Amino acid sequence: MKILCIGYRTWALSIYSNLKKNFPNYKIKILKKKKKNISYKFIKKFDPKLIFFYGWSWMINEKIFKNYTSLMLHPSDLPKFRGGSPIQNQIINGVKKSAVTIFKVNNILDGGPN
């Protein structure tokens, strides 16, 4: 199976490296990229079964998530604390216990299936 991992944050790249190390039978490609550098043409050429966007801060091009299963990791129990500062907002709101949500990307900010 081909998996494409796209990110730029150190912790996300670490997750991807561990994934690659622990699943040697999968063809895993890690792209250290930001929004402006994502090429649909490259994605189409690699033709992954899954695309991971962990620690991502921008909306994903609809052409990508409509044609490829694209998963996002968000550090809250969605739909609570959607947006770009979920950890900070949980601290401000006194949340002591939280969760991490992995969801299928769609056209709503942090709006995977609830």
Q: Tags for this entry?
A:
5 strands; Rossmann fold; 24% strand; alpha/beta; 29% helix; 4 helices
Please outline the helices and strands.
Blueprint: E1 2-7, H1 10-22, E2 27-32, H2 40-46, E3 50-54, H3 62-67, E4 69-74, H4 86-92, E5 101-104
Parallel strand pairs: 1-2, 1-3, 3-4
Antiparallel strand pairs: 4-5
In short:
The chain is of the alpha/beta class. It has helices at residues 10-22, 40-46, 62-67, 86-92; strands spanning 2-7, 27-32, 50-54, 69-74, 101-104.
Fold and architecture overview:
With 114 residues, the chain is of the alpha/beta class. The chain has one domain: Rossmann fold. It has four helices and five strands; from the N terminus they run E-H-E-H-E-H-E-H-E. A five-stranded mixed sheet has the order 2-1-3-4-5. The longest helix is centred in the first third of the chain and has 13 residues. The chain is globular and about 45 Å long. The two termini are 27 Å apart. The mean pLDDT is 87.
